[in-house]
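Marked as duplicate of an earlier ticket. Keeping the data here for the record.
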Amino acid sequence: MKTGSFFENSRFIFLTKTSLTCSTLIITILIAQKLGPDQLGVYSIAMGFYAIFQIMSMMGYDAVVVREIAKDQNKGDWLLGHGIVLGVFSSIIGAVLMGIAGRFLNYSPSIMKVIATLSIVLFPSFLNLLAETVFIGLKKAGFAFYTAIIREAVWLLLSMWWLSMGQGINAVLYAFVISRVIGVGLLVFFLHRERIFWWKNFHWIGFKEMVGLIPTFLMINLLSNLLMEVDVILLSKLVPVAEVGLYNLAKRVLRVSFTMVFSIVTAMFPVIVETMHKKRKEIFLCFNGFSFRILMISSIIAIFVSIFAHAIITVFLGPAFIQSVGYIHVLIWKIIPLSLGLLWSRFLIAANQQNKDLLALIIGLPMFLGLGILFVRVWGVIGMAYADILIFICIALCHLFFVNRTIFQTYEKA
């Protein structure tokens, strides 16, 4: 990939992810201001549930798409066609499991109603992410950006309008459904414009080949998303709902801050795949260079947010939510191990060593559950933030160990 192409793709990916995280943050602020901490807690729990099952319904197919397109640019329509069929089945299963999990956790009827509404969005969300991933793999992320801007604007404007009319939390949910459907329509238009005709390239042999890759990638995505959202779910059973909402504000700030790093790593992934398979002698230079960039960027972001956290919360939310500043000061430092772990996991996936990425996450999840519960009982909600950072440091170190053992040592012997 040429340098110009890399930075252009990275810029559009960043803008795409920024539109989503900013709209989510603004919606969170609107709910906090107009509906209060209790309704914010309900929304946070339900959206955490949705995020887990949305990623689960994707089944890790997005990583397969980017990796395979980086190897062969002509596979875009072929991968898209198989992905749509996969999405039909996975979204139905995900919706059913969302309801079962909510009942198992004995959530209140108000939370279950929100979860049921969000389950409807799984398939259109799948299609949005799948099409965006194809464009990213083809180095045409601009189309994903144009769609995201319109889609998130629809969600935000409709939510603001209906909330101002006193419609309550349902206003946000209905607007979310409508925006995702509009996003699908826009992406279909852009796919047709680029002559990517998925319906002409489906065949069962290729579908079975792709399905064979799914179990490992599904577990990777499921576990990684669980690790990102399980803190809110644990807190929902350990502390009052209002405190969950305040903690979730800190998480939203972290997610917005992480957007730039995530976008850069996503744009780096095709470069990593190309280097791994076509320029093997440059893999050490690629690893060191990318790791240093991500370390510097994530550190600067953490310092900046930590300094201005108090001002951000005071200006946008007011003194009623000032407690979340303490959570931000701790939780924002998670961005460093989170960013490095994400980058190093992409090296493992590019080398077809995704099972090692999965192993690192398997090690991390039970540690998170144990430390999270223990730290909350000892230090309260802030203890969850401490546990979060410690676990992601451990996961990042596991990724680094596996990269050294399965990639560097293998290449040195070769």
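See parent ticket for discussion. Residues 3-413 form one domain.
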